[in-house]
Amino acid sequence: MKRHFVILTIVSLSVIAGASSEVAAQPGKLLTNASCATTTCHGNQSPESPVWARSLPLHLALDPHAHAGVVLRGPLSQRIVASLAPESTQSPVVYDNVLRTRCISCHVTVDAAACQPAGELSDEILGRGVSCESCHGHAGGWVEEHVGPDWRRLQDEPSVGFRNNGSLIGRAETCLRCHVGSRTEDGLVRDVNHDMIAAGHPALRFDLLTYHVNLPAHWDTTSDQEQALFSSSIRVREVGQAIGLAAAARLSAERASDYLKTGRRSDVVWPELADFDCFACHQSLSSDSYHLPAGKVQKSDLHISDGLPVWNAWHSILLLNLRQKQQWLSALSPQNYDPKQMAEIGPQIAEHFSDMARQAAERFPSPMAVLGETIDDLHANPPVDWHAAAIQFLRIEAVAEDLTRSGKNAVIANRLNAKLPRLEQLLRFDASDTSFNSTNFLMSPKGFRADRFRAEALDSLGHPIPAETP
Predict the structure, then answer these.
(1) What is the mean pLDDT of residues 63-74?
(2) Global pTM exceeds 0.90
């Protein structure tokens, strides 16, 4: 494995040295990062050069996306592939064909042809990782145009094929093609379904703000545009959650459509269990660890009854009160999850929440107002499971960040910042608990208590739950 890492790193870095600047315009064609890597473009390695001029070396050196292809040769990937195709342990060709058809559409910058089961993958392909064109669009139609005088006008032309990440929504949509999934974008299938999660792939729970903060920047974070985009953590989180739910609805509709077209083909099944809350089914049923919510707790609309999973809980929990169409609520119940119905209403749901994201992108919420809403929610609609609590935590965290950034209400900001680590600890999965299944990675909130989280959250907000009168 060390040999692969060394080879792939050398392949990636050698791109900078050997790139050619002469690329003919070919709309939709993948050029790889060789087209970006000259020292007069984005491959300059001098620390004195502008960030845009050294963006490729920064990406290769610091960004985990650059090594996303390398991990497909690692031990976790080997276990996942072996679960999906046991014969892959004896055949490199079978192994690489699984990577081609299931993995590289997200882990590597490729075109649709590379995702066909065509045999062994070269180190050069895996060494690309997720590079420039995964996020900025295949460069064949714009690599020369983007340095020309008409670029500001051309960059948003669909025929050019450039992805504009200059807005919150544009950036979120770029990320969500992989971090939620899509079966149609760029002609690629990017779908972490239940089979892959059961094989060991982490479930996808994307948060735009968290991912963006943790991503090493290869762009100018000090520009006025960038500062404006991320001047409100609450705004970023609201946009990300709405556009994430839109992407999830769109993916569900695409799964349904593909199932209707192909029938019971092995890679398209219905119902697709990845559309639902994992932990509703994957939980201990022992009496000492199964905690039913108190009878007086108000459940959300999609918590039909205990034991029935919620549709796309990570994306939907905080937004359930914004769904106003009963037909959607009915269609998203696991009891009524019909592929024809989902193929029809999925795009409607996606457009509804895309519109909500567009509206959220124009607002700058008051942190104190959102804090008040959060307190009201925790009193009136207590979280009944891990997903609901996690989303409320993200909301409190965003409020704390905005209050800290503004310098106002310092006492409240300091109290929240002091309490956030404890709330986060309550949400963490207990990886040390091997009592259930030591061969699994226990990526579930076994032992999580929603009532305890609610009590400590309200205490951190200065609104403890009143003691009950006898």
Answers:
(1) 95
(2) no
